[in-house]
Write a structure and sequence with these properties.
With 296 residues, the protein is an all-beta fold. Helix content is 1%, strand content 38%. The strands form 7 sheets. Strands 3, 4, 6, 7, 9 and 15 form a 6-stranded mixed beta sheet that branches. It starts with a strand and ends with a strand.
């Protein structure tokens, strides 16, 4: 807006702050049960006009380069058009994340406070299991509002995002959040943060001890010589990828003697090996399984 004085011809400009905020959340990462080189990733993406003052944002666009996100290991990336979860924005049917980076058609106007949530599903397939990266694969969405008839969004020169042409009314870089409908309380009041994806296994172990049935022979609830204890060891893979060559081991604690034949293995999904027949709780025979397994 420009206003002019009535007597001296001077003018002044008033800036109305436009603001656009975008968020992203990793819903799930799943390793294919048949092909361990293939992963399915599901994202949610939120975008909102947080300008205030009843300002309208024209031609809102979201840009997402999945080829850049999953460049490590040179996989094949396949993605279809995002689905709208809420709001009135228009998903781009041609989006594929590798040559067409526009999640929206780029013609939607967002009124003050208006928001939209998209869900994006992609499959990433590597040539071999050895080329599957072990580090985080970080993803970023770029949001823009541009004057004119439409907004093609960001393009990419190598690894560098290039802003769309034309006058940019508002822009933002995504923030990783637990809930994509949680936008900052103030316009652009958050800090951009990429959304990580990991294909690596993550092994954890927990150990607990209790008296065996009939094993508390001395002072009740107090460990005494001659008591029998049961140790339970829980191994878990809480990551996405399969831990190949997994072997569970455990050494009997000091001042205890392993009760021969008492070892039991309660198998779960992804663990099929039988128990070891040679385990005796010593450092030389500490393997709990008969052979290494692929631990999904």
């Amino acid at each position: 807006f420009a206003g002019a004085g009535s007597s001296d011809g001077a003018s002044c400009a008033f800036t109305m702050p436009h603001a656009l905020d975008t968020t992203k959340h990793l819903v799930s990462t799943t390793q294919d049960s048949v092909d361990p080189k293939k992963f399915t990733i599901v994202y949610d993406i939120g975008v909102k006009n947080t300008s205030g003052n009843k300002l309208i944002l024209p031609n809102v666009q979201l840009s997402d380069n999945l080829a850049l996100t999953f460049a490590d290991g040179s996989p094949t990336v396949v993605a279809g058009a995002p689905s709208r979860q809420s709001g009135n924005c228009s998903p781009n049917a041609g989006f594929n994340g590798t040559s067409d980076f526009s999640l929206l058609t780029g013609t939607d106007s967002f009124s003050d406070g208006e928001s939209c949530v998209l869900r994006l599903t992609a499959t990433v397939t590597y040539d071999t299991t050895t080329t599957v990266p072990t580090g985080d694969q970080n993803n970023t969405v770029y949001a823009t509002s541009v004057e004119g008839n439409s907004n093609g969004g960001y393009t990419f020169a190598g690894n560098n995002p290039v802003e769309p042409t034309g006058y940019i009314v508002a822009k933002d870089v995504s923030t990783d959040v637990a809930n994509v409908t949680t936008f900052p309380p103030a316009p652009n009041g958050d800090t951009p943060k990429p959304t990580p994806v990991s294909f690596a296994p993550n092994l954890t172990v927990h150990k607990a001890v209790a008296f065996a049935v009939g094993g508390d022979k001395g002072v009740p609830n107090e460990v005494n010589p001659g008591d029998t204890l049961t140790y339970t060891v829980l191994y878990q893979n809480t990551g996405t990828g399969t831990a190949t060559g997994f072997m569970a081991t455990d050494i009997a604690p000091s001042n205890t003697t392993y009760v021969s034949g008492s070892l039991a293995v309660n198998s779960s999904v992804g663990q099929t090996s039988a128990k070891s027949t040679t385990y005796d709780g010593t450092t030389t025979k500490r393997e709990l399984l008969a052979s290494p397994v692929a631990f999904a």
